[in-house]
Amino acid sequence: MPGDNPIRRDAFLYLAAQAGLDTNSPHLDELFPYVQSILSSIRSLDDIEVGISDPDMAFNPSPEDK
Amino acid sequence: MDGLELCYLSAGELSRLIKNQDVSPVEIIDAHLARIGETDTTLNSFITLLPEQAKAAARRAESEIQAGDYRGPLHGVPVGLKDLFNTGGVRTTSGSRIFDTFIPDHDCTVAARFQQAGAILLGKLNMHPFAYGPTGENADYGHMHNPWNPELITGGSSGGSGSATAGGQCTITMGSDTGGSVRIPAALCGIVGLKPTYGLVSRHGLTPLSWSLDHPGPMVRTVEDAALVMNAIAGHDPNDVASSREAIPDYTTALTGDVRGLKIGVPREFFEAPLDPEVAAAVQQAIGQLEDLGAIVTEVSFPLFQHAQAISGTILMAEAAAYHRDLLAKEGDKLYPPVRIRLEAGLFITAIDYLKAQQARSVFNHETLQLLTDVDLLLGPTEPVTAPPILAELVQAGEQTIGTTAALTQYTRPYNITGGPAISVPCGFSESGMPIGLQLAGKPFDELIVLRAAHAYEQATNWRTRRPPI
After folding, report:
1. Is residue A65 predicted with pLDDT exceeding 90?
2. CB pair distance less than 8 Å for A45 and B361
3. I want to staple B455 with a disulfide (CB 3.0 to 4.6 A). Which of A36, B223, B318, B400 is the partner?
């Protein structure tokens, strides 16, 4: 979903309800543009060439721990 | 020795006096409680102060030492813990009134290890709520204030730890560092802050912000004290799933003062980012001093530095939202609004983006480790600016005006991604009298090299001898 509108309002409200937020709260009018700006900003992740790298797993024990 | 002098001695200096019974832990605790009484209405470092408990512990320590049962360098030394370190029988708020009456039934591992070492808990320290912010704001318990200028921020999230140590209220404090929360207040308050390697210091019993980025670490006034604290708290803990089994050295063996031949890389990208010229000049001067001491300093390139915010921010938001999801649904309206909105935004990070960020973290770590095969350490500013005013949303960094949060985490986040050790040591003051920090970072488990370089630089300068005007 690249671009200036990374999430539609109906999708935002659906996900907010799934997460247990009160979708009737006026607070969501403040949250929606903030979420849009955050989701736009993390699109720079797409500029990183990750190839076939495995995700980092911070909790993996080091070899001597196995 | 008068009380104020006692309050500004390092743990190393205090320990030598205590061991020789030249000073009693009772005198030390009394002096610190008096200092807190004089200064905390201004600084607001403490959420919970424990005067009676601390006095009783000091009397016990005095008796033990008089009886020949000296436990080591932290015996009788005052310690303060950021208020997300669980303390059995003492409330632990995580900086939020929601947990104003939460009293854990047991100590976190770090608190237990301090107690074993004979350190004396003075109280629980103020913090950015849930550790989610780099400034030291707290509407519930009051904002934290910088001892060098109380109109300015301490930095955060471990802001009370920064102000208490810099203000002579506490000899040793502990913070936790997820995006810079030990090093940011250390730099802005003019003290030493060490983020140890991930897994070296147990996270057991700490309120998480981000499981894979959280690092507990000491905030002290000298590099020697950082080494002494690490000797007491580092080491495997079966209660922490990420705890390392790496052998623990005596960290004080790093304090040789010798950096001859040490290879230090300075990423050019650090100086292309928004940066206050006064900070840049102080760091350049520190580079010259390290060269004079015999270090070999070279310019290096760290291309992925520009992506640190996106990688770290995505992981942090997703993990923080996952941990606090129930709280957001049930009591979100009681949270400090800027923290609430950051936590809620994490609910909208997809699993795909979270895993993309973790893949990018692997690539980022590979690049950083490659850099650290050519050099022993990476060096740069800890912060691009000195402390801004409390609640300032924007800061001026050189010719650029940028958001305060992005600015304050600009140089610290890379080493939460890698998990390697990073330390901030004072390297100067601005014309307005505010401290500037130098950051040195190494490979995972290379604390000895990081401490060695930081100590040699510290000993070659006199920044540690300055005291804030409060």
Report:
1. no
2. no
3. B223
Question: The tokens 């979903």 sit on which residue?
Answer: A1
Give whole-number Cα distances, B9 to B15, B229, B439, B454, in Å: 10, 15, 24, 19
> How sure is the predictor about A2, in pLDDT bands with cuts at 50, 70 and 90?
very low
In this prediction, residue B457 carries a pLDDT of 98
B48 DSSP β-pair partners: B124
- 3 state SS for B383-405: CCCCCCECCCCEEEECCEEEEHH
Distance between CA atoms of B32 and B51, rounded to whole angstroms?
Answer: 10
Rounded to the nearest 10 degrees, the angle between the axes of helix B447-460 and helix B277-292 is: 100
Q: Judge whether residue A66 has pLDDT over 50.
A: no
**Residue from B358, B7, B302 nearest B169 by CA:** B7
Q: Can you read off the two tokens belonging to residue B288? A: 């010259």
- Each residue's pLDDT tens digit, B156-195: 999 999 999 999 999 999 999 999 999 999 999 999 999 9
> Can you read off the two tokens belonging to residue B327?
């709280």
Backbone angles phi, psi at B193, to 5 degrees: -130, 125
| Nearest-Cα residue of chain A relative to residue B344 | A31
Rounded to the nearest angstrom, the gap between the alpha carbon of residue B381 and the centroid of all alpha carbons in its chain is 15
What is B277-337 written as a DSSP string? HHHHHHHHHHHHHHHHTT-EEEEE--GGGGGHHHHHHHHHHHHHHHHHHHHHHHHGGGS-H
DSSP-derived pairing of the beta strands B172-177 and B215-220: antiparallel
ipTM of the complex: 0.91
CB-based contact, B333 to chain A, within 8 Å: yes
Alpha-carbon gap, residue B175 to B124, rounded angstroms: 11
> What separation in angstroms does the CA of B422 have from each of A25, A33, B118?
42, 35, 27
pTM (global) more than 0.95: yes
Q: Which two tokens stand for residue B302?
A: 């760290």
Look up residue B275 and give its amino acid: L
Pairing outcome for strands B172-177 and B120-125: unpaired
* Degrees to nearest 5, angle at CA B341 with B337 and B346: 150
Strands B215-220 and B192-195: antiparallel
Pick the closest to residue B80 from B49, B106, B102, B59 (CA basis).
Answer: B49
B82 is catalytic: yes
Task: For residue B310, list chain A residues with Cβ-Cβ distance below 8 A.
Answer: 41-42, 44-45
Enumerate the domain spans of chain B: 3-465
Query: How confident is residue A1, by pLDDT bands cut at 50, 70 and 90?
Result: very low
What is the CATH class of B3-465?
alpha beta
Cβ contact A19–B329 (<8 Å): yes
Scanning every residue of chain B, which has its alpha carbon at the shortest distance from the alpha carbon of A58?
B212
